[in-house]
Amino acid sequence: MDGRARDRIELRTPGEIARIREACLVVSDVLDEVAAATVPGVTTAELDRLARTRARERGAQPAFLGYHGFPASLCVSVNDEVVHGIPSEGRVLRDGDVVGLDFGVVLDGWFGDSARTVPVGRVGAGAAGLLQATREALSRAIAAAVPGGRLGDLGAAVQAHVEPRGFSVVRDFVGHGIGRRLHEPPQIPNFGVRGTGPALRPGMVLAIEPMVNAGDHGVETLEDGWTAVTSDGSLSAHFEHTVAITAAGPEILSSREGLRAGAGTGGGG
Fold it and tell me: What is the value of pTM for the model shown?
């Protein structure tokens, strides 16, 4: 395969989008259960086992398990952990934590991916504001995913929403296309300039995933080779939906509501 084929952005048929939606709805259902179980006293390893079991009960396989050597089915990122947190029997969640839950599956050869950050018990006003701003930033990015727009419009929407609120956009990790593979072109930065980048066309399926820090945008990777943390120890939040661009506008595939952005989105369901 030449470089041009590897870089090509796939345009999916309505039938293919329906298959991706089936995988995404498994992800959504599993995340609903995992989020409900994210309470004080639970270990992150327990959440991982729950996600793996529930996915397989629905006929899907966890997409992250073994992916480039990742040792778990669910990424669980706590407090200053940005993404790719590895679940552990020794990590017990406590009241006031914020926990990023990132999960994907493959179902009949098609991938789905979604993430949300949830509070454990009662969290402070600063943490609640970070979660709200990141969730809203995802909604704004989805609303910008319209035919005739440009890929840079998505990142610009995220950046324009969170930075005036005193938060920062992570630059080291990006969203991505998705379909037959977990990660397909294009890469989707969460910052950018409106009107730049590839044109947005019906049939594109994009995993849009703002990662926002309460402090500086810098991140570091721990010695486990996976867990990314904020460089300054500040809290981080992560929300993600898989979205299809259609002639009528963006359609969220990883939500039971199946909302189009023009009708409003919750950004975390």
Answer: 0.94
For the segment 62-70, the average pLDDT, to the nearest whole number, is 98
Residue 4 lies in a domain: no
> How do residues 167-185 score in pLDDT, each as one tens digit?
999 999 999 999 999 999 9
Whether 256 is covered by a domain: the verdict is yes
Number of domains in the chain: 1
Question: For residue 236, what are the contacts with CB-CB under 8 A and spacing of at least 6?
Answer: 77, 79, 80, 81, 82, 100, 130, 170, 211, 212, 213, 214, 229, 230
Cβ-Cβ contacts under 8 Å for 151 (sequence gap 6 or more)? 186, 188, 192, 196, 197, 198, 199, 200
Q: Are 228 and 76 in contact (CB under 8 A)?
A: no
User: What b/e readout covers 139-154, taking b as 16+ CB neighbours within 10 angstroms?
Assistant: bbbbbbbbbebbbbbb
DSSP helix/strand/coil, 55? helix
Q: What is the extent of the structural domain holding 150?
A: 10-261
Rounded Cα distance between 64 and 20, Å, is 16
Distance from C-alpha of 47 to C-alpha of 44, rounded to nearest angstrom: 5
